[in-house]
Amino acid sequence: MTAFSTSDIPSSINSLEKLAVWTTTILNELYPGTTAIEASGQAARVAEAGPFLITAVDPQQWRHIARISIPLNDPWRRGNAKIWTFAQDIGSASIPTEYKS
């Protein structure tokens, strides 16, 4: 489990969009070599995130593009609990200090 407390979240994060960029960037940094089999014979990184320059628009723009693959306990579809309560751990690394301010 990559544990955190709400006090770890920088005060400048005041929207779900900023929180998503923060969390996916941390997961990308902590687990760069961790993969999961998502299709027969195909391993994919469990976290990928970063800024990408999109040149197909005018003017071009930078966008944060992220993808995460978090395992879920199997009974998530049958329970009354929210889906996030069934999320399983990717690893046990700690959030780097520089992400906490």
Tell me what you see in this structure.
By secondary structure, this protein is α+β, with helices and mostly antiparallel strands. The protein has one domain (6-99). 15% of the residues lie in helices and 25% in strands. The protein has one helix and four strands, in the order H-E-E-E-E. The chain has one helix at residues 16-30; strands at 35-39, 42-45, 47-54, 61-68. Strands 1-2 form a two-stranded antiparallel ribbon. A two-stranded antiparallel ribbon has the order 3-4. A hairpin with a 2-residue loop joins strand 1 and strand 2 (42-45). The longest helix is centred in the first third of the chain and has 15 residues, at 16-30. The two termini are 21 Å apart.
What is the number of beta strands? Answer: 4
- Overall 3D form: globular
Strand content: 15-25%
Count of DSSP helices?
Answer: 1
- Low confidence ranges: none
Global mean pLDDT? 95
Succession of helices and strands: HEEEE
Helix content: 10-25%
Q: How large, in whole angstroms, is the Cα Rg?
A: 16 Å
Largest sheet: 2 strands, antiparallel
Q: N-to-C terminal Cα separation, in Å?
A: 21 Å
Spell out the key features of this protein.
two-stranded antiparallel ribbon, 4 strands, 101 residues, single chain, two-stranded antiparallel sheet, alpha+beta, 1 helix, 15% helix, 25% strand, globular
